[in-house]
């Protein structure tokens, strides 16, 4: 019996799916071989079927496609400066008000004060 591969990457497993699919192996058999070699948690049966469909439609890339929508984080120098300016103008402004005004999540409405207690 072959030894199980403990360390693997998504790209490696996807390459195996592509290779076996190109050889005409059925998705159910591909999943079985991947589970035996990489372990049950490496790729689900439905994901194997999905990748086989994509490869059958002509996809060649093994990487993830760029995702649309807003970025996962809005923390940047610009937002930090905007929050700081709002707080300096009206120190009684609530986090909710700042978030609504700047159209950013509430958790990003926190500024770091200097450790020495001095003004920013």
Automatic annotation (TrEMBL):
It comes from the Eukaryota. InterPro entries: Mos1_HTH, Transposase-MT_Hybrid. Residues 10-51 form the Mos1 transposase HTH domain. Residues 58-81 are annotated as: Disordered. This is Histone-lysine N-methyltransferase SETMAR. The lineage of its organism: Eukaryota, Metazoa, Spiralia, Lophotrochozoa, Mollusca.
């Amino acid at each position: 019996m072959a030894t199980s591969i403990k360390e693997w990457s998504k790209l490696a497993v996807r390459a195996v799916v592509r290779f076996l699919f190109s050889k005409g192996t059925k998705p159910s058999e591909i999943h079985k071989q991947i589970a035996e070699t990489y372990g049950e948690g490496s790729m689900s049966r439905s994901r194997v079927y999905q990748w086989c469909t994509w490869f059958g439609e002509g996809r060649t890339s093994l990487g993830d496609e760029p995702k649309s929508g807003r970025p996962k984080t809005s923390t940047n120098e610009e937002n930090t400066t905007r929050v700081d300016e709002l707080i300096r103008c009206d120190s009684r402004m609530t986090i909710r008000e700042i978030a609504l005004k700047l159209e950013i999540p509430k958790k990003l409405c926190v500024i770091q004060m200097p450790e020495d207690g001095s003004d920013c």
